[in-house]
């Protein structure tokens, strides 16, 4: 628990110094001697009673610093993320260590003003500074450097991870064909099966239907976090070291642990926020249970009783995604008879010869239709849209703001498929948000809360309806209302399937940071949650010594994940509000706000706020309600829910 609880009423969502990247590498600010001296001087003066003027001067100092060094750190982080080498890792580690040291100093110094009556905006800035570090280090010498080292190493282990599929019992031809298809290569193109990187495995998991190959890719990808490096260290070792260092740092700052610090970023008490996530989950859980029941029954038809028993959790590798986090890729296996809308987005994109660049341009055009200014020239010059052939990069998609202004970019290893078409919109949402709040203090240049940042692009992507696809020439004829259940099923496989995963990632981390689970219990605790919340199970027993959470980007990258769960609720609230605004009175899943300048204007008004106000105010500004509410999700999927309940009659649901 933080020492001064009343402050949560105004705690801001800002992650100081890391605000420049959305879902990307953590950046820190480097130090200068002059600035360090300044910090020491003001800390030394802390026995004197502080005044509002002191607080204002302190805030200004942190803002100036953050603006200048944040940019420097972001540029280093960009270089490292787009070219992982010994040297770029070295530089990233150095910058992150220096930034963490300074962030810790600032956060400690901010405590001086705890009991001072401050104007609300200044109070909010002070709180933002206290919550500024994603994972804080303790002040003892060497700790920030040690933390930066393990964080950089974990990230680079993940991003450079690859597996050997050359000595499989499955015919090499079959694997090569799957890999070619994942890469969009022609039949016969040469591929190397000895080293298949994560980004290809991700795409392959969506297309392959051979359960033995799925199990093999799935299992081998989980070797990456426990593979020792040249010095015998594994990602699991690094993770345990990070937990210790981070918790020491968080406790010095007055938090219970890092998990509690992450939960404190939602303008309420950490415990109240945890309860809020459970409340929201309770609203959508019945829908998930019905979806799970139907999907399991259909997969049972495809794979048989041995692979998919009807009373057990579903095998995680059969759900079309490396982490079973969204299931849209198995739509064809579970589609409702007679309600298939008759198109597949991946197919449409490939048939029309879309390129990754064209996918991004299409995303931009959607935002332009809402009235947002075109992306700057530098976006196109500096973004990484596809995977460079000649170097290691962080392929996990992210959106960056390098200079607190217009140097916005995305970094993706885009493939021409439906998943990445949606991800392009997701990332652009981050960039438009970043640009919208660029006139705010750097301390407020972030989402109203983390969930808002993740929901913007997704809300736009909910408008990728058949009518919209027809408008932009991707689809010839739109399916009639008799196909609605198919459309809703596709969307539920993406969005409803995600919800328990979105929740449990941090339920696991909250336990780990709270030290309720020790390193030897990491993996078993992970699978208990996977089974409890998602109802999924590994293809074969997992050893307790494994580190399966480390096979998911956000664990080694230390990106908190509840933001995505929240985003999956918020995006439907935003979508419903936007559709209401545009005068739509049909079913929500058929509503596209493409072209609505009115929606764009109101949307922009919310985005411009950044984190200056507590998030309920931002939510209210756009939706008219200050409360997060799963009711919009329930309303969107109501026809599907009714259909599922009928379909599942006589089936025994649950696990
Ligand atoms: O990490 C992301 C984005 C970048 S913020 C691509 N997402 C989560 C994931 O991939 O696990 C978007 C949805 C969930
Ligand atoms: Zn994101």
Describe the structure.
- The strands form three sheets. Strands 1-5-6 form a three-stranded antiparallel beta sheet. The chain has a two-stranded antiparallel sheet with strand order 2-3.
- By secondary structure, the protein is mostly helical.
- Among the domains are: 1-136, no CATH class; 160-226, no CATH class.
- Mean pLDDT is 93; it is low at 1-16 and 24-45.
- The protein starts with 20 loop residues before the first strand and ends in an 8-residue tail after the last helix.
- It contains 26 helices and seven strands.
- 55% of the residues are buried.
- It has helices spanning 33-44, 52-81, 86-110, 120-130, 143-159, 172-183, 198-207, 211-221, 235-252, 258-263, 270-307, 331-334, 345-351, 356-369, 377-382, 418-436, 450-461, 466-471, 484-495, 498-513, 522-534, 562-581, 597-608, 615-623, 631-636, 638-647; strands at 21-22, 162-163, 196-197, 314-315, 398-401, 408-411, 536-537.
- Helix 7 packs antiparallel against helix 8 (211-221) and helix 16 packs across helix 17.
Q: Provide the low-confidence segments as ranges.
A: 1-16, 24-45
Beta-strand content = under 5%
Overall pLDDT:
93
Tell me the overall shape: globular
């Amino acid at each position: 628990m933080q020492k001064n609880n009343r402050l949560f009423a105004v705690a801001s969502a800002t992650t100081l110094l890391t605000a420049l990247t959305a879902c990307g590498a953590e950046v820190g600010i480097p130090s200068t001697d002059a600035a360090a001296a300044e910090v020491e001087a003001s800390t030394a003066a802390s026995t004197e009673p502080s005044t509002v003027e002191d607080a204002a001067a302190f805030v200004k100092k942190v803002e100036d610093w953050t603006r200048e060094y944040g940019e420097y750190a972001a540029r280093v982080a960009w270089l490292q993320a787009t070219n992982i080498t010994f040297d770029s890792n070295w530089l990233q580690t150095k910058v992150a260590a220096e930034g963490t040291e300074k962030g810790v100093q600032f956060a400690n110094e901010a405590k001086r003003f705890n009991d001072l009556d401050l104007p609300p905006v200044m109070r909010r800035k002070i709180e933002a500074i206290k919550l500024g570090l994603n994972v804080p280090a303790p002040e003892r010498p060497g700790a920030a450097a040690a933390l930066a080292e393990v964080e950089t190493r974990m990230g680079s282990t993940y991003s450079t991870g690859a597996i050997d599929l050359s000595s499989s019992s499955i015919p090499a031809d079959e694997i090569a064909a799957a890999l070619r298809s994942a890469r969009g290569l022609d039949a016969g193109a040469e591929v190397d099966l000895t080293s298949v990187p994560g980004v290809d495995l991700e795409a392959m998991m969506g297309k392959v239907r051979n359960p033995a190959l799925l199990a093999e890719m799935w299992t081998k990808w989980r070797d990456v976090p426990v593979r020792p490096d040249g010095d015998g260290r594994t990602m699991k070792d690094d993770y345990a070291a990070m937990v210790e260092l981070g918790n020491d740092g968080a406790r010095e700052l007055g938090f219970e642990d890092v998990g509690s610090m992450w939960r404190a970023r939602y303008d309420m008490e950490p415990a109240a926020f945890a309860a809020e996530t459970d409340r929201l989950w309770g609203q959508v859980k019945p829908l998930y249970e019905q979806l799970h029941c139907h999907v399991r029954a259909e997969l049972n038809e495809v794979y048989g009783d041995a692979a998919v028993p009807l009373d057990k959790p579903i095998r995680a590798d059969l759900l079309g995604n490396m982490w079973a986090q969204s299931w849209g890729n198995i739509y064809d296996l579970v589609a409702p008879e007679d309600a298939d809308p008759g198109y597949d987005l991946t197919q449409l994109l490939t048939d029309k010869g879309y390129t990754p660049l064209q996918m991004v341009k299409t995303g931009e055009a959607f935002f332009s239709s809402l009235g947002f200014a075109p992306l700057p020239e530098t976006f196109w010059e500096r973004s990484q849209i596809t995977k460079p052939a000649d170097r290691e990069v962080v392929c996990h998609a992210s959106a960056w703001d390098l200079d607190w202004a217009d140097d916005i970019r995305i970094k993706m290893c885009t493939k021409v498929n439906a998943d990445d078409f949606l991800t392009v919109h997701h990332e652009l949402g981050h960039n438009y948000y970043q640009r919208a709040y660029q006139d705010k203090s750097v301390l407020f240049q972030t989402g109203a809360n983390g969930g808002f940042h993740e929901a913007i692009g997704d809300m736009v992507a909910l408008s990728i309806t058949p009518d919209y696809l027809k408008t932009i020439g991707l689809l010839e004829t739109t399916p009639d209302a008799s196909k609605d259940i198919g459309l809703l099923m596709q969307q539920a496989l993406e969005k409803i399937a995600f919800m328990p995963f979105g929740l449990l990632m941090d339920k696991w981390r909250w336990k780990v940071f709270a030290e309720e689970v020790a390193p030897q219990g990491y993996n078993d605790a992970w699978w208990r949650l996977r089974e409890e919340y998602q109802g999924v199970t590994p293809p074969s027993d997992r050893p307790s010594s494994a580190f399966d959470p480390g096979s998911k980007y956000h664990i080694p990258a230390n990106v908190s994940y509840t933001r995505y769960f929240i985003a999956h609720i918020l995006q439907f609230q935003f979508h419903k509000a936007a559709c209401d605004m545009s005068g739509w009175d049909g079913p929500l899943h058929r509503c596209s706000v493409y072209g609505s300048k009115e929606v764009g204007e109101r949307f922009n008004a919310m985005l411009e706020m950044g984190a200056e106000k507590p998030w309920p105010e931002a939510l209210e500004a756009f939706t008219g309600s200050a409360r997060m509410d799963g009711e919009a999700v329930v309303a969107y999927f109501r026809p599907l829910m009714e259909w599922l309940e009928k379909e599942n009659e006589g089936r025994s649901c649950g696990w």
